[in-house]
Design goal:
- The protein is α/β, with parallel strands linked by helices and 475 residues long.
- The chain has a single domain, classed as TIM Barrel, CATH 3.20.20.80.
- It has 14 helices and 14 strands.
- It has an eight-stranded parallel beta barrel, surrounded by six helices. The protein has a two-stranded parallel sheet with strand order 6-8. It has a two-stranded antiparallel ribbon with strand order 9-10.
- The chain is globular, with a radius of gyration of 21 Å.
- The model has no long low-confidence stretch (mean pLDDT 96).
- Its EC number is 3.2.1.86.
- One of its GO terms (molecular function) is 6-phospho-beta-glucosidase activity.
Length: 475
Amino acid sequence: MKNYNRMPENFLWGGATAANQYEGGWDEDGRGPSIADVLTGGSVDKERRLTPPAPLPEEFYPNHQATDFYHHWKEDIALFAEMGFKVYRFSISWSRVFPNGDEETPNEEGLKFYDNVIDELRKYNIEPLITISHYENPLHLSLEYGGWKSRKMIDFYLRFAKVLFERYKGKVKYWLTFNEINMLTQDFGAVFCAGMLDPKDVCEQSRYQAMHHQLVASALAVSMAHEIDPEFMLGCMLAYHNGYPYTCHPDDILYAQQFGQIHNSIAGDVHVRGYYSGFAARYFEEHGIQLEVLQEDKEILKKGTVDFFTISYYSSSCVSVTKDGEKTAGNGSDNLKNPYLKASDWGWQIDATGLRYVLNQIYDRYQIPIMIVENGLGAVDQLTEDGKIHDDYRIEYMRRHIEQMKEAIHDGVDLIGYTCWGCTDLVSASTGEFKKRYGLIYVNKNDDGTGDFSRIRKDSFYWYKKVIESCGEEL
């Protein structure tokens, strides 16, 4: 008989990072520039700026060094092992493997770095979970082809994916095709997700066409992977947008439902069901979106459905048809403030109960295994005189969310893993700051460029170690 009071013994506990925010070594060993490498640093009063076709000498580009996993990978993986990680989610920098993105043959020096990382993880029995494309298109593909608005990107992506699948067959089981693909429902996604640099492409027509190309590429990659190794497990990854109705007026109830269908289900349905929903067809028609869909695309999408579903979940907000109310920040979106919730230092509302709601919503719709591959608190951490970081606020955030994960499992949700974001400090994608820290490991790097990259275990490091040791019993 199933014990609903305990997490599954084979639950995949771990942490997550992305190459563009963590790796550094941006121009070493043959790596080419990516979109992230021409994004300047930002702050609360200074937005990140895109400066193609190359970095400007007077600007600061935090992603160039990030928090330097490229030179600290052994040390960091040992720290992950000390915490007891069962899984580590990371991305492979496309431009480290194919510097321009459209070459015929890969950069062997770039691949050797990931050989070392994967072998080191396996030494500690940590399962790699690899994101193939995580907000880091090679810059050349944007400048030469216009990013993912071009269908040519599909072949470039598949060449990259095939190299990874063949090289790491037998070493890597879990793969994610694209990070937060559904961010293309928002202006934010034009550059970050699709690498489209033309301001005219910050429009629904271009964004949804780019998303269609990525969905086709994902489906083809899934089919290819299963042919190369039937043991491979391929997943999708969505930034899950949880928008509650701001009032109980029926118009707000319907608007909240449609908000979820747009921002979550259009991409999710194609990934899992293999086709666009009737809602998507109506939305495209009413918004003048005319997708170029080849006849073979329908069969490709139907064949290449994913094996599991993964999400990032940080916060929730409210939505209303009137748009009236105090605004709040969030992961790629600004909606209405919920008066019942507290917020982080950056205004992201903290809603652990919402995670249970979301997990039930996803599982009821798709009935496939789920992983939470991003969840964490961006905060200002203070280093004490004795070299400690007492981040009780982060512990409380994670504790409350893990409690709701357990409730969701009790509800019947097939939740198989949790990788907190990011297990070490890294560059914030939205603001380009080091100050906005997520890690359980402190990295001495600052927004003024100073810092020696030394690593310090935060209080949350020791707390999470106990959580993993007890499989979620000791919170």
